[in-house]
Each structure stands twice: as structure tokens, then as C-alpha cells.
Amino acid sequence: xxxxxxxxxxxxxxxxxxxxxxxxxxxxxxxxxxxxxxxxxxxxxxxxxxxxxxxxxxxxxxxxxxxxxxxxxxxxxxxxxxxxxxxxxxxxxxxxxxxxxxxxxxxxxxxxxxxxxxxxxxxxxxxxxxxxxxxxxxxxxxxxxxxxxxxxxxxxxxxxxxxxxxxxxxxxxxxxxxxxxxxxxxxxxxxxxxxxxxxxxxxxxxxxxxxxxxxxxxxxxxxxxxxxxxxxxxxxxxxxxxxxxxxxxxxxxxxxxxxxxxxxxxxxxxxxxxxxxxxxxxxxxxxxxxxxxxxxxxxxxxxxxxxxxxxxxxxxxxxxxxxxxxxxxxxxxxxxxxxxxxxxxxxxxxxxxxx
Length: 355
Prior knowledge:
- The protein has 355 residues and is an alpha/beta fold.
- 35% of the residues lie in helices and 14% in strands.
- The protein has helices at residues 41-48, 64-74, 86-98, 115-121, 164-173, 227-240, 247-256, 260-283, 305-314, 338-353; strands at 28-29, 81-84, 105-108, 126-129, 148-152, 179-182, 203-208, 221-225, 286-288, 295-300, 317-318, 320-321, 331-334.
- It is globular, with a radius of gyration of 21 Å.
């Protein structure tokens, strides 16, 4: 292909590939780790009662009511909260703000595949550190000179969590760089690293409303950390786009923090279904690490993952397959409703018994 002269000045990256959003509503959608349950009835009433007159005005650039609601919920100060358009926006801003060393940032070789995309986009040197054979992060691998550290807990797509002692080990050894713990899935059974922000000024914790809070379509993410980290993040945000969150999102996001009973109820249902699915999948010949997220990362003892992915898709059941080194023989299965997971298990029983 002939390169046009102006193309030499274009920033070229290999983009992140998001999970497919099928148009057919009859599909059993277990491919993007969304919450299978709707937002709380209180929030849905607030949606219907929303007064659209305010849309003629710009939203509050500080998103004060949302920031205050998140701060109250977690027992921190508003100055310790940063909000953005989903955790992807918050993470991208964090990469842009904190990872400006000539030394490589460190993250696992099997992890959220947006990390290397942002590193390439922002020209940040990086190094992928290999997970252990059981798909765990090895803390001691991070005890070396670097330009920053980022990892999810629990990790994605593996679902494996890391204890607070291990996270603190890393923090103790890298006090001169920012460490980002991406807690997108923490509500499904992992201890948060939030208590550590009192001790480590260089720790940033990133969360999302897209998974446990049933609001992937609203696009809210946030970070928690020391006031100095949050100030630097806001400085970059206001140099980029002052109005990142719209008015309905700010108001509805604040409302979503109020119905704790409903929130805990949906978490319990997802966790119970996940544990049931583990037993069923294990009985069908699947192996997997002990997931603490709202998905299970499985490998079958004799049926190739790509083949199983295609057969499931043909049957209207969407899961995720990553054609990458070390994991192309795995499938990531999001936890749906109990009914959806029973349909999945019935299909797998019938299909695997026929080959």
C-alpha cells in the first residue's frame, strides 16, 4: 500500500477490541461482564422523573453531588475522589498524568488489554510481567526500578485476586512511583485496597459503576487516592475536557449510591450463581482458577476453546475468546442470571457428550 505524505505524521496504534454488542436481544450475552440484573427500582424511578429542562445548561464540571455521594459511601473526603466517563476514561487520564518516566511501567502479561493500548498511545515504555502457572501475579517481580505499576484486583480475564498483604508488599518496594489498583470487579468477593491509601500517598484505586452497580450504559468511573494525586488528575482533566460527565449521569450516579440493600442483593445473586456454575463446569471437564469476579476463565480438558466459542455462538450464547499467547485455549464466561447460566450448562452437557 502506498503511504501518503501526511500519513507519516499520524499517531498509529492497534486499538483495544471491545466485546461484541449483538443486536439480537434473544442472545444470551455472557461476553462483556455486564451485570445481568437491572439498576435498582429507586434509580429507575429517578430516570422517569428526570427534569430535562436543565439540559440547556452545561453540567457541573466538578460533578459535586456525585463526588460527595461516592465520598460518603466510602468514608473518604471529596478531595480524594476523581470521576470520569467510565473507568477507562479514569485509567487513561491516570496513565497520561502519572506515567511520564523514561522507565517502563509494569503490568501483568495476562491482564486488561487496554493497558498496553494506552501505553502505546501515550508513548509510555512498558513491560509485561509473566503471571505464574496458576495465573497469579507474582509480587516480587515488581520489586524493581520502574516508571509505575498498574494491575486489576481481581485480575481480568483470569478472575484471580491478590491479598492486601501482597499489594502492600509491592507498595513498600515502589514508593517513588504511582501504583494503580484497578478494582473493577472488587465487589464480587475481594478485599479492597482502600484502607491502604491512608498509608501510601502514591496509591490510586480505580472503580467503575459498569459491573456491580448495573450501570454500564451510564458510563461512570472514579478513582480514590490522596488529595495530591486527585489534584494532579483534575489538573490534567481540566486541561483536556472540563465537562466529561453530563447532567443525567451525575444525578443518577449519585442516586445509585443510595440503595445499598438492592446492591447487596444483586451481588449475592451473582456470587451464588458463580459458585454454582463453578461446580457444574468442573463436572463437565473444565478447569479454571478460583475466580473472585463476575466471570470464570475456563479451559476444557479436550475441546478446543475456539471450537467451543463458535458452537456456543451458533447456539446464541456469546462468551469471550482471546486469541493471545498463553490464553487462546481459554474462554471467559460472564456470570448471567441463574436461568441464563442453566441454559449455558445444558448446552455444554449436550454438546460435549456428542463429541
